[in-house]
## 1
Amino acid sequence: LEDQLRGGSPVVGVPYDDGILLLTFGRGQHKVFEVYDQAAFSAIGHPADIERLRLAAIDMAHIDGFTNSSADVSLQRLVNFGIAPLVKGAFDEMFRAPYTIRALMAEIGSGKGSCFYTVEYDGSFERAERCAAIAGTERASEMMRAYLDSAGTGVEGLSDALDLALRAWVLGRRAGLAERDGKEIAEGSGVGDREVGETLRDETRTLAVEAAVLARSRPGKSKFLKLGGEALAAALSRYR
């Protein structure tokens, strides 16, 4: 499972003044999805397993909302009593294929609060509030989280969040590929303008950036919005 995940494109979760940004790169298939009104899901791994877990998360959230109320649907309940047991059950079952997946889920609250959950292929999970990141290796994930933590939580606008997420993605991508190839990458390296520009120019030849936000200011119940090409092109243009 670790070998299959090793080359995966990282996913970054960054809070900003209006909500949460999720960003990744992919080869055409979507990787960032809405789960419920204020919750989103992304993952690295086998596309079929990502889709299976996405549908399971949506079903669990809507059943909970229908049985109780939409106010009762929370990421904590969804992960603790739904997603994590489902993934762990598949991992523990001898005659059942486990989920080849590493997932990141995000949720905004009614105030300024936000939270993230990362779920591993064995059903273990962690909660975070400041930021979140997953990559093909645990080392790369740790480096991304350390970089995001060092950048602080004072990200204001969406453009700043996009830039921070792009830099964290580049760090995770470089670290993951270096580890896959048996090389070392120093902590915090690879996020200068030159390194970011070189990596993004190389990677965008085969990968396309994908990002979405959970925005509190968005009217209606659903706070999920996929970012269009114009906003993403503007974020990337700095490094062209």
## 2
Amino acid sequence: MSSKWLSLEEALAKALNAATPIVETEEVSLFEANGRVLAQDAIATLDVPPWDNSAMDGFAVNSSELEDGTTLNIQGVITAGMEAATPLAPKNAFKIMTGAPVPPNADAVVMIENTATDGDSVKIQQLPKSGENIRRKANDIAVNDVLIKQGTKLKAEHLMLLSSQGTSSVKVFRKLKVGVVATGSELAEPGQERLATQIFESNRVGLSSILHNENVEIIDFGIVEDNEASLRALFTKASASVDVMVSSGGVSVGDADYVKDIISELGNIDFWKIAVKPGKPFALGSINNTLFCGLPGNPVSSFVTAKLLVVPIIKKMQGQTGDAAPLFVNAKITRDIKRRAGRRDFQRATMTKDDSGEWHVTPFKTQSSGVMTSITAANCLMVIHESISTLNEGDIVPVMPLY
């Protein structure tokens, strides 16, 4: 077990290296696939468009026949979902609607605004080029194209694309099972009686909400008091039933902070101190095949470390591809800051965009990790690098949006 303070990058690298993706898959209906992670490449089985079709309402013509002011006989009408009964005849035009198949012998569509109709004839007022206003077969998708890559977290647009190919179900990785628990004799269950020396527990609902956004199966292990036997029994049980166990509390250096010692006894602890504020006492370890994340008991610290470390771990274990690290943008700070260097500081703040599209960030004056209202009032975390002790108004800083 390393007692060295790790940088955020070191901690995240170690965490992602320990996060083994699940391999079990299941077939689910597209109606149940939103937020699931695709387990194999989705391959196109149909051309899109499936035929040459009109890009707008107008008249399908043979452009080689046309001269300025040419008048053509209207051979018929083609609407979306139908096709011409016969090929386009010489000196004729088909009235055609957007999306309808272009008839044989036609090589252009004249938009309706560039024509004038008179009974059964149409005058072409602007000559088209060959291919004009025609969407070619397979111009968007060709058979055997990779539509969506394995590891993609499916969204509405992906499901619409799959459905347009005639797909009704898709193979996805099974849902990750994540256990959550809060430790501490000072904690009371919300809705239950509270002793005068207790506070109501809040981390489990916060963690569960963050992780529900990742579409995992949450198993709530409730509150466990600061008791070695109880904690040992809990973690032994969890290691047999979940892929990831996330606890809050008990990972610091207090006399009753048993969690990391018990995890080390039952399995191993990779590290337990990272150079961030808030959230220094974050523990990473494992018991058998269950990855263990020990978060600080302080609600703000728990919230921040869940965002910075637990969510990327979950993404990796779900089989999601791409960068699992949180998204950051740059913003101008709106006031001077002086602080003690040494840890990377994630300050609660609000970010706004000016008329020119530039982001500005204003950190709250109170940054105590015990002030939970600072999280509800913030829309971002402003980042101050561990080497920086002074920031001046107008300096550019990285910002992590919370929405």
